Amino acid sequence: MNETTFKVRFLDKDITSIYILEDSTADACIKTLMEFNGTLAIDTETMPLPQYRDYPKAGLSPHLATIRLIQIYDGKQSYVFDLMFIKRRKKLIKLLETKKFLAHNAVFDYKFLRKLGAKHIELGCTRIIYKLISHAVYPTDAGLSASLEALCSTILKSPIYKDAQTSDWGEPNLTFEQVEYSAVDPIAVWELGKRFKNGINKFNLWKIYKLTKEAQYPICEMQLNGVGLDVDKHTANIHAWRDKLYASKKILMEHLGTTRITDTKIREWLGANLDPYTLSFWPVTETSGQLSVSASTFSDYEHLEIVKPLTIFKKFQTLCNTFGDQLINCVNPETGRIHSDFNICGARTGRLSSSKPNLQNFPRSTIYRQVFIPAKGKILVLADFSQIEVRVAGEYSQDKVLLDAYRNGSDIYSITAAHLSGKHISEVQSGSPERQNAKALVLGLMYGLGANSFCSYAKKGYGVEVSQEKASKDIKEFRKLYHSLRSWQLDQTAMCQESLIATTKYGKIRCLAADNWYGSSLNTPIQGTASEINLQSMVNCYHKIKGTDIKMFNNIHDEIVLECSKDLKNDAIKVLKDSMTDAYLQCFPDGVVNNLVQPSWGYNWGEAK
DNA sequence: TCTCTTAGCGCG
DNA sequence: AAAGCGCGCTAAGAGA
Hints:
The protein is α+β, with helices and mostly antiparallel strands. It is 51% helix and 15% strand. The protein contains 24 helices and 18 strands. The radius of gyration is 27 Å and the shape is globular. The structure holds a DNA duplex.
């Protein structure tokens, strides 16, 4: 298709669009846009680099693809710049760096624009805004899609046809449908932005939007940087897992009389072979009432000979299936590293989520995590917030016992354990059953755990046996010890039952589901605010490391991992300590920050922790 | 054959 | 009256 001016129809209007292939036209259009006052809507289409044309989903990776089209809408006209033919990179970048922009899923475009050479772009995101508003309005995410295509239908009532999105954007001669589609995208973003303003105002979401918007920059850099994978070590781990898996599978194959060990087969076998007495006590699943075949159930019945191989089988099946080869498949062929997606407001509390692969749920043991490595000659420096959620609960409730404990640098779990067991605090060692018990109690009870669940939780999570009576007594004691926390909880749940709305410190609003409001009403302000402190830390950190050789490596809710050369180790530690402490104080100006941030370092992630 | 749901489990 | 929360990924089964 040649350079041309055409009309696209969107929201019952015909909008002039221009497909730009020549530098002289580009110059004139950039000049017009430079004179624009306000926020421009932007979108990009990407094409795989020639050598990765056949690589699956290469167009989504800024390392395997490049920008083909940049589309900008100024409220009057849609400009489609074709970078395959236009040479004016510097002018375009100047435009990007000068004006303010709005995009849908802006981090995606920003990654490519950064690779194109842009240093910093003022960039809003309609996807983030949509998330913030929909979390405030709808009790669940069920059936809601945050894609631009979906929002055109649901919000603008003006469907767009995304067939073109997955088309071949590397073909020099684009079809009219492709160019037409690309011209519509920024118009849709513009219109969404217009409508969303009311929502942000209505729910007073400006502060949380500002934070999440700023957080886009460190998150973008983190994704571009990625994490290194020690493929040899990881492969060795996988082989060890498989050996154990096959050994246990062999035993099970004999017992079950089949080569295919599935949950259904295990259930059948258990039903037919367990003695009636054991069967009557065997746990069943939540919704369908089937026999439980979870690893934790098996570990409860390990005294039965047959259950032993089941426990092992389950464990190593999970490791192999979830944390095995997939990781190696995620290694980017260009960078040799893994570049996960991090989803801003991925959780309704406001937490980040991570996917493809999820870098936030990798097993904790050193032997597993040591496969994540920095670039050659570099180290990892990390810091995590110590007991951030308990601290936030303390700040919310201003519970004196809780806050004093942190002020004095004492261990909250030990204090609780001492109180409950009647022992002196010096007798409650770290790792002792009393302290483990208390830890389960503190974390669970913050979010409304009951005596019933507490028993199974203590056993499952911490291997601590607690009777119902003991649990009830412990809960009462806990509420007496932290009585201000308790009254905050009572206020909070009473308020949320009435309003079905929970909020965070930065003003994120979560509409609670009528059938799941109780626990969430306690959890949302705490987990949500903790995640805001995390985001603020990343923002602070981003400004400190910009222009240095310190890079963002990973973020796991309350932990930030940096990558740098060894001689920058102390700088990186200071960056983390300051960024995180400041973030906490930005949220709670009179907050207690003793022993708040715990830094460490190592040659790989496992060792650094 | 495909899509959706359920159960289960890794992390915080 | 009582009630822990938040994710993403996988396999298997159900439904169309």
